[in-house]
């Protein structure tokens, strides 16, 4: 995770479900998905980039802005 400068006027796509707790990556075999519980910083208006790299070299990046 890294903080970056973002456009404060960019449109938002609200997250429907929030997650808190420790920051561990786990696989949910029932849902067939990976789950990462991340408690966002309390400061509003900051932007973060979170990336996941797999062993085959693929990378997925998600951008977040705290509200």
Q: What percentage of the residues does DSSP assign to strands (E)? A: 35-45%
Amount of helix: under 10%
For the record, give the distance between the C-alpha atoms at the N and C termini, rounded to a whole number: 17 Å
Question: What's the rounded overall pLDDT mean?
Answer: 81
The SSE string, one letter per element, is: EEEEE
Shape: globular
Rg, Cα atoms, Å: 13 Å
Number of strands: 5
Q: What is the number of helices?
A: 0
Structural class estimated from helices and strands: mainly beta
Order of strands, widest sheet: 1-4-5
- The unreliable regions are none
- Largest sheet data: 3 strands, antiparallel
Give a verbal description of the structure.
The chain has 67 residues and is an all-beta fold. It is built from no helices and five strands. The strands form two sheets. Strands 1-4-5 form a three-stranded antiparallel beta sheet, with no helix packed on it. A two-stranded antiparallel sheet has the order 2-3. The mean pLDDT is 81.
